[in-house]
Specification:
By secondary structure, the protein is of the alpha+beta class. The protein contains 8 helices and 11 strands. The strands form 3 sheets. It has a 5-stranded antiparallel beta sheet, with helices on both faces. Strands 3-1-10-11 form a 4-stranded antiparallel beta sheet. It has a two-stranded antiparallel sheet with strand order 7-8. α3 runs antiparallel to α8. It starts with 7 loop residues before the first helix and ends with a strand.
């Protein structure tokens, strides 16, 4: 925030640079001769294969504030997931009803009683935090797939006055998603809790798919070594989708942004204060804020 002088264009540039740099580094990793395969989350692998791991449960409890995507973004993601499945049919897909963007993570990997104690400590401020986006409305634009060896996400950048929807002046974008994250952090800290978030980089993303098998990029079902041709096909599909997103969903002068191409955080639903075993979209709602 200080480096950008709180300028929405500079903040947007920080988010853009982060995802471009990260995608480029991950592409290089996938194409490296040293690449040994995708990173399989052992918890999700076991949850996705109950016949192999009967009775397994994820006991890692977390406390977060999630932003829930509106209908247009959900529809876009459903379409993107279908396109990804066409080239990688063994991907684990985030269920549409579970889609979320972590605006603030309070803590992770604790016991349920420990989480409940933190919820009690924050209880007076949770209504204000979850309703915050009703009055402080930040806009996200320029959807693009971001990826690494573990997962694929749909990421956005904070808007900086480009093609605002009817009724929203361009200067409203001066309050960016990064400002929102700052305010949520400060409100949470004002309760006396320690915020142990893992999310400090300039990123606004929703995980839409995870790798739970090497099969889609391996030489064969019995040989887990990466097949360079299959790896290239996967990367080509991601890049083709990003080209489609750029041409169809990014702002254009004098045109309205296509449904799904922008997201005013708080549309339809306010922030979702969520607790429990929620690493893969689960858990339970402590309080859902008021949307607009």
């Amino acid at each position: 925030m200080h480096r950008s002088n709180q300028s929405q264009k500079e903040i947007q540039n920080c988010y853009a640079k982060h995802r471009e740099t990260r995608n480029a580094a991950q592409r290089q990793k996938f194409l490296s001769r040293d690449f040994t395969g995708v990173t399989i989350d052992p918890y999700l692998h076991k949850l996705a294969n109950p016949e192999q791991y009967p009775g397994f449960s994820d006991e890692r409890n977390c406390l977060v504030f999630w932003a829930r995507p509106p209908a247009g973004v959900r529809a876009l993601i459903a379409n993107l997931q279908k396109q990804l499945l066409a080239i990688a049919p063994n991907l684990w897909l985030m269920p549409i009803e579970c889609l979320h963007m972590t605006s603030l993570e309070i803590t992770f990997s604790l016991t349920a009683p420990e989480i409940d104690n933190i919820v009690d400590q924050m209880s007076d401020k949770i209504p204000k935090i979850t309703d915050y986006t009703k009055d402080y409305r930040t806009r996200l634009i320029k959807p693009k797939l971001s990826y690494d060896t573990a997962a694929i996400a749909l990421s956005f950048e904070p808007a900086a006055g480009e093609s605002p929807p009817d009724g929203r002046p361009p200067e409203a974008d001066a309050y960016t998603y990064h400002h929102l994250r700052r305010d949520l952090y400060n409100l949470s800290r004002s309760t006396g809790v320690e915020v142990a978030s893992r999310y400090v980089v300039p990123s606004a993303h929703l995980t839409i798919a995870r790798f739970v098998s090497q099969t889609d990029i391996s030489v064969s079902q019995i040989d887990d070594r990466p097949d360079p041709e299959k790896v290239n096909r996967l990367l080509h599909q991601i890049e083709s989708i990003n080209s489609e997103l750029y041409h169809s969903y990014w702002p254009k002068d004098g045109e309205n942004i296509k449904s799904g191409g922008q997201w005013i955080v708080g549309q339809e639903k306010g922030l979702d204060c969520r607790k429990g075993t929620l690493w893969y979209g689960g858990g339970e709602t402590v309080r859902l804020g008021k949307g607009f």
